[in-house]
Amino acid sequence: MSLQTRLMTAVIGFVSLILVIVAVITSALLTTTMEQQLDEKLYTNARGLSTLVEQVPPSKATVDNVLPAQLPPVSPGLLFAVFSQVTGASGVIISTDEGAITGTATTLTNAQLAQIATALGTEHIANATIENVGSYRVAVSTTPSGVLIVTGLPRDDIQNQLATLLTVIALATLGGLILLALTTAITIRVSLRPLRAVAATAMRVANQPLDRGEVTITERIPASQSDPRTETGLVGASLNTLLDHVDASLAARQKNEERMRRFVADASHELRTPLASIRGYSELSLRALSKQSPEEAIEGTTSSLERIQAQSLRMTRLVEDLLLLARLDEGRELVYGTVDLAQLALEGLSDARPTAIDHEWSIEVPDEPVVIVGDAGRMHQVVANLLANARTHTPAGTVITLSVAQEDDEAVLRVHDNGPGIDPDVRDELFARFARGDSSRARQTGGTGLGLAIAKAIVEGHGGHITVASEPGDTTFTVRIPVNPTHSAASDSAS
Questions:
Q1: What CA–CA distance (Å, rounded) separates 88 from 59?
Q2: 370: pLDDT strictly greater than 60
Q3: Fewest Cβ atoms closer than 10 Å to its Cβ: which of 2, 130, 262, 355?
Q4: Which residues form the HAMP domain (predicted)?
Q5: 396 phi and psi, to 5 degrees?
């Protein structure tokens, strides 16, 4: 059963129950009121007839002897019966002609009188159903001489008015329920429109292939059906927010896949070259051993083994970088101790200066040590990677400045150069793994895209962060590390 059907059933059923209760209460109150009015008429007629009965001796107390030849003014359909131990039971129903005050009397049979006596029982007033006459409201009274007088009035008016009232209530209820059903259906349908829009949008999104390739979710709930001020509109607004997050996640996934593909290509290239060299020098050495003299073979084999060793070291560095990133992700590889960042910067610049003598190198460190709690070896790697990045991506003559300072509770290390700057298209992803500032695979400018990612992972492992600001002629990498990181002790205990 749909939500709309359940809501309509609940509303119409509840309203119907209320209307039925109102109809029952109304009919009961109306019946009581009309019977009270009928009882007042009944007592009035009874008093008049009691006067006539008292004028007749008990031995002659019959209806024929009591009633005069000319009937007094009475209510239409008045029932009059006399029950006497001497004369027995007799009774009539006085019917009046239309527009006349008096009328004629119809004699009641013994069976009809018995029905009246049975209805009264021990009560002084009751409702009696008389055969071939109808329903009557009857009351009994006793004269001083012991004669029982029964008077009654027909209940036809009460029943007719009650039937008319119930008919009107039934028709009004039926019409009201039909109108209520239509109004409720329209209201619920309009109110649930945002939910149907949500279901349709979710179905369209579910039918899209989201597991592969570049995916963009453009489906959204219209603004008119996603008003967060309403309950159903809030569902649409929430789905739009969810779709925005999913779309952003799919875009991030696609970028990661592209980076992974680039990395696989870069890593394959980086590994293919040394592997090809190792294979070539191995074949050359084997050929020399089989065809050349021992002296020449030893000389050629020695040179080949040196080249094989160099290429093996190159592959080892790449594999170690990947392993280092994996271990940093797991919170391992950092061994905390006291590190003088100023001294470490001096050593890092001394190591980098001979690798690029065509660059100008400068260092700015304070006279006092800048001490942090960290891993000296990994922090040295951060400095080396930042300096190598500046050296690799700037032309000859570029001035590279390495500075260290303490600002409040942070140690700050900056690497600045006046080179051409960083392409804005890659600046936001510069520290992502496998990201490359140069899309070429040249060893001089391309790299594997792991250097800055490793630097970022190490800095974040120390509780710090690394940022870059770049424009043509002014590029600065900034590393900020807390002097006393709160997690260092925990890391020591964990290791």
A1: 10
A2: yes
A3: 2
A4: 189-251
A5: -60, 145
C-alpha torsion sign, points 38, 44, 45, 47: positive
Q: Which SS3 state, helix, strand or coil, does residue 280 take?
A: helix
Cross-strand pairs, 83: 89, 148
Report the distance separating Cα 138 and Cα 112, nearest Å: 13
Closest CA relative to residue 379, chosen from 422, 417, 333: 333
Evaluate whether 470 touches 428 at the Cβ level (below 8 Å): no
- Pick from 137, 173, 129: nearest CA to 158: 137
- Residues 253-304 have pLDDT tens digits of 777 777 777 767 766 776 777 788 788 878 877 777 776 666 666 766 777 7
Q: Dihedral sign, CA of 192, 197, 202, 207? A: positive
Kindly give, in sequence order, each residue whose CB lies less than 8 Å from that of residue 198, ignoring residues fewer than 6 positions away.
221, 235, 236, 239
Q: Are 470 and 307 in contact (CB under 8 A)?
A: no
Closest CA to 349 of 360, 335, 339, 336: 360
Q: Which of 375, 396, 401, 372 is nearest to 455 (CA)?
A: 375
Please work out, in degrees rounded to the nearest 5, the angle formed at the alpha carbon of residue 462 by the alpha carbons of 459 and 464: 60
Closest by alpha carbon to 282, among 307, 262, 258? Answer: 307
Q: CB atoms < 10 A from the CB of 147, how many?
A: 22
| Dihedral angle over CA of 209, 215, 218, 220, nearest 10 | 60
Q: Let me know how many helices (H) and strands (E) the chain has, helices first.
A: 12, 13
